[in-house]
Task: structure prediction
Amino acid sequence: MRRLWLILKTDARRHLKSPLTIIIYIIIPVAMTGLIGVIFAPSSGDGTLPPIRVVLVDRDKGLASRLFLGAFDAEQVKKMFQVTTAGEAEGRAMMEKGKASAMVVIPERFSLDLLEIKPVFLEVVKNPAERFLPDITEEFVQTTAVMLSAAVQAFEPEARGVRAMLDAPVDAFPWEALAPELGKAQKKIASAAKYLDPLLLNVKEEKTKAAGAKVNLTRTDIFSTILPGMAIMFLLFIVQTVMRDMISEREDGKLRRMLTTPLRPSELIGARILGGWAMGLSILLVMAAFGTMVYNAHWGPFGYFLTLVVVVSFWSAAFFALMNALVRNRNQAGVLSAPIILGFSLFGGSLMNPEAMPKAFRAVGIVTPNRWFVDGAAAVRDGRFPAVPLLILAVSGLILLLLAVPALRRRSTV
Amino acid sequence: MLEIKSLTKSYGDVLALDHFSLELKKGEVLGLLGPNGAGKTTLISILAGSLRDFTGGVSFLGKDLFSDRSLKNRMGIVPQDMAFYEELNAADNLLFWGGLYDVPRADLKKRAAEILEMVELSGRSKEPVKNFSGGMKRRLNTAIGLLHKPDLLLLDEPTVGIDVQAKVSILDLIRKVGAAGTGVIFTTHQLAEVEDTCSRIAIMDRGRILAQGTLVELIRLVGEKDIVEITGEFAAAAFSEALADLDGDGVELLSASDNQAALAVSDTDRIPKILDRLFRRKLAVTDLKIKTPNLEAVFLKLTGRSLRD
Result:
């Protein structure tokens, strides 16, 4: 183990002494992401978020629904949301065409149920083609629901009183009875907070299953979507560059010399694979940090993302260990590695959105690490644990490693 | 200290080592002399443990060299290749290779400084090796093999492609290492190097040792005869035929190839007679050199060809 660490430490020092290649491989994907992002991202003028287009479907048309709709009329909120009132079918059609980020459905009997202190649900239908704007809408509705819920619970007796009055005909509405209810209500405003839990009013989330919804990404979405694809492509180049040392050492006699020392072949192979893995991991994290700093890219929960990065770096190291054990010399490795990496990138979704690729390309893509990393990164961005991509990358990486070790052992002696 | 018994190694149909046997004592500097393809590098590679599929055995310090890994720490290898990291400086290279040889961390820096001093690189120890000249790189290559104070040092053509000054420095180092008690085997095809450096010389060709001994012992093999090298315009067969009747009359044909031949003569008086025979056969002679007995003559006599072939 001591010798293994010595090799790892020395390799790291060597790469840091001439880091130009690695720096270039970090800068290129970040720069390419910027370039592609700038070309394809929608411009929002001053760089702030564009107004979020929300469709409001009011099936209730009662007192509470008016109050709720009123929340969207506040001056600050108006800047944020562009609200259209429509029927549900029309709202769904607008989302399919990419003309709305979310639809908020106020159910029938919304006002009556609230006044009767019954739980009710506001339905938020999110456009799946967009990443953040529907979430912002949901957050806003959630906040409004909390406030409305608190208000209704705090004023429960008064609400029940008002509810009774609502049954009276309009011309016989007992206006004089309304004043005491409002008086009592005032005293309760201060203690409203303790009624916040449990919430009376809840938000139900739904994503439309509308096929062919038009993608309408924000600038940040674009960078967050492009960067993982670029990062994995250049990660493969970097890992191969680092692991090609195995061939150089074989060609220039360092491998033979190392094996004349007490160093065991297994220690050397372990050091080489661990070195490639560690380098890939570090570089990918640096790229992610760059992405966050430069583009405000969103990666999702760090633990999930780190797990994905660890596994994909391991896969890359195992793959190139095997490849370098099979090729005869540096030239062969150079000739083979570039087309392989570019092929992985093309079919695996590094160069274009997998959803936009022909079906045959998508089918080939499932054998590439790029595809699983891109899919995994998208899942992590959505806050989900990327179980399937991780499983596939880890298992295939282990298989590659098991094939690489004996091949490298054979290569280490003549 | 080292006993090689009947090592045999072939690459396909080519026999690189043919029942090769050799012994080396502590502090002995053995020059292994042979032309390209003689099997020198194959021998070093087997001893270094980087070649497999051979027969025969090697005992080192009384143990089987190939089954006792601890012996690797007792042996230093200086390969023909410049096997070190060019991005690192000389000191860092020594620390790395010393670490692989299990030199204790506490001693490693001190030992690296000593060895850099010994190979006259201490002033450049912090400079990336890629900036070094060929000679400096050779010296560093040698230093790496000596760092862990081995009992046996194997050098495979350690002076290839370097200037005279660097060559002298390395040969001097080899002599010092031998004098300090380390057994040394170094391969070369430079006669002058072994003449000046080695306590014993072994001449090998086609995987076998043809003769071995001190320089004086080897020269005795060709007797007191002078060597006559003849260059001209003739076929090998015609040359041999022209001098056939002089065989046994103080003239011995050592080698003959088209346009070049070598003879051992007991007396230079024989030279006019030799030329007469050649002219009668209309074989043109353009150059003739007379040499006193030396290792090259021994080599010619033993192998029938020059080291340059």
Notes: Residues 189-197, 209-216 of chain A have pLDDT under 50 and may be disordered. Strands of chain A lie at 52-58, 81-85, 102-106, 120-126, 201-207. Chain A touches chain B at residues 2-3, 6, 10, 13-14, 17-18, 252-254, 256-263, 413-414 (CB under 8 Å). The CA atoms of residues 155 and 187 of chain A lie 10 Å apart.
